[in-house]
Structures are given as C-alpha cells and as structure tokens.
Amino acid sequence: MQVGVGLPSGVPRTHGQLIIEWARQADAGPFSSLGVVDRIIYDCYEPLTALAAAAAVTRRVHLATTIVIGPLHNTVSLAKVAASLDALSNGRLILGLAVGARREDYQAAGVAYHTRGQRLNEQLATLRELWEEQRLGPGAARASGPPLLVGGLSDQAYARIARYADGYVHGGGPPRTFARAADKVHAAWHDAGRPDKPQLWAQGYFALGDDAIEAGMHYMHDYYAFTGPFVERIASGLLTSPQAIAQFIRGYEEAGCDELVLFPTVPDLTQLERLADVLDSLGRRPGGAHS
C-alpha cells in the first residue's frame, strides 16, 4: 500500500504560499500522492486549481482529487480542466468524483440535489467519451484520460464504480468500514464482468503534536458539522499520535487498500514534517515500499 498526504487547501485560513511549499516538500518526502477535497460554501481552495499549483512545483507524486463533487461542475469544462492538468503534470492526475452530501453547496451552485446521482452517471460516461474521442485538447497523458475513482457508500455508488470507473475512494473511518465497502466494490466489479481489480483508495485525518490536537479537533467539528450528532464519532477518528497513524496504516493495508491519503487538519509545515518522520520510522519509502 502507498501512503499519500493531503494538501492543507481544505483547511480555513490557509495561505496560498503554504500550499505551494507543502507540495514541494511532500514531493521530496516519503509520500506517493497529494490529495485535495472539494467544497463550495466553505473557506477552502478550488481543488483542481490547488493541484495545478502543486503540479508546477512537483515532479513525482500523483495529484488526486478525493473527491471533486462532480455534479456541481460543468462536464465539458471539467473534462477540459482535467485533461489540461493531466498533460501539465505528465500524467500524474487521479480524478476522484462523488455526489457529495451537503445541500448548501448544491443550492449555491444552482444544481438540483435530488438528481445528483443520475447527473454523475451521465458525467462519468461523457468524460471518458470526450477524452477517448479527443474532442477537446490538450490530449491527456493516456488515450482514455486520467484514471477515474468514484466515492460513496450506496449500492448505486458501487454499481457506478463497476460501470464507469477505474476504482473506488473511501471517505474515511476505521479500516473495518473500508473493508466492508471494498468487498461490495469487488462484488459489483465481478458482477459487471470487469477484468483485473479496481484501484482502492481511502483517506484519514491527522493532527500531530500536543500543540495541534485542539485545532485539529475544531476543524473536524466544523467541517463535518452538517452530520449533526454523528460529528462526534467522525471527529474521534482524528489521528493524533504516531502510534495511531501506524495502527491506521497497518489496518488499511491489511484490508487491501492500495493508496491511503492522510489529510492535515492544521495548516502548518511542521505537521507535514511530523507525518514524514512517522512514515520514515515505519520504513516507508516514496512509491509505497517499506522495509
């Protein structure tokens, strides 16, 4: 299993230069990917713009959206931006899409919330068609476009993955939750007659050091406030020690995850450095190898 790190672009009041320096240092460290998340009504950066900035100062890491809320974006524009970013990064883009769960983002974008699943299905089919037929330029690094991941925990999401995507991205939680979802993804993949295996991605959140835990917990409560009483359970999953991170990584690896992206909850370069130290102590190397 490979281990990536999220950009702090989803954390409020993050300075743009910090995002660029974070990307630069992550590319030199023991990480395989840089991840971003997507919101509209929130103090955060537009995800593909953040990845474009990261692409300019990195050479090695994959650039992953985990996820972009597909139905909030015009499909042709999304295809154009994704192909451009893939070409600029020499084929390092991984495009993860999902429907999202926050109604306020849909209201702000003027997009119907109740049709978001159907819209994402149509979008996934159209994206692949536009890339394969080269109806817009620049051409992506691969003829079929960048790899597509799909998130979600419904039967419709698993069917969507099997029909349109290259793999699955899990939104977080304990490894056992991921394992159950992965089993359903594999079943849908098999039922659809797909060869090989789907890529399996997942994510978690971290705040390392006594000076960061309070701020990290505040971010978790703020970002997931829309879940109501479930926010406490989500926030309790924040990884706040090297031991917790090691256990989390081990659990996801045993559950069959291919790539685990750990997102910061505090926008400070010391967080990236502390996480790199943890991975180094575990014998992790760029590209996911470990001793």
Produce the secondary structure layout.
Layout: E1 2-6, H1 16-28, E2 33-36, H2 47-57, E3 62-69, H3 75-88, E4 93-98, H4 103-109, H5 116-132, E5 148-151, H6 155-164, E6 167-170, H7 175-191, E7 199-206, H8 213-223, H9 231-235, H10 242-254, E8 259-264, H11 269-281
Helix pairs in contact: 1-2, 2-3, 3-5, 5-6, 6-7
3D architecture notes:
With 291 residues, this protein is of the alpha/beta class. It has a single domain (2-281), classed as TIM Barrel (Alpha-Beta Barrel). The protein is 45% helix and 15% strand. It is built from 11 helices and 8 strands. It has helices at residues 16-28, 47-57, 75-88, 103-109, 116-132, 155-164, 175-191, 213-223, 231-235, 242-254, 269-281, and strands at residues 2-6, 33-36, 62-69, 93-98, 148-151, 167-170, 199-206, 259-264. Strands 1-2-3-4-5-6-7-8 form an 8-stranded parallel β-barrel, surrounded by 6 helices. Helix 3 links the parallel strand 3 (62-69) and strand 4. Helix 1 (16-28) packs across helix 2 (47-57) and helix 3 crosses helix 5. It is globular. The relative contact order is 0.16.
What integer value in Å does the Rg equal?
A: 18 Å
CATH domain topology = TIM Barrel
Helix content: 40-55%
Main sheet overview = 8 strands, parallel, barrel
CATH architecture assignment name: Alpha-Beta Barrel
Stretches where pLDDT is under 50 for at least 5 consecutive residues are 287-291
Number of strands: 8
Judged by helices, strands and strand pairing, the structural class is alpha/beta
Shape: globular
Strand order, biggest sheet? 1-2-3-4-5-6-7-8
CATH superfamily, by name, is: Luciferase-like domain
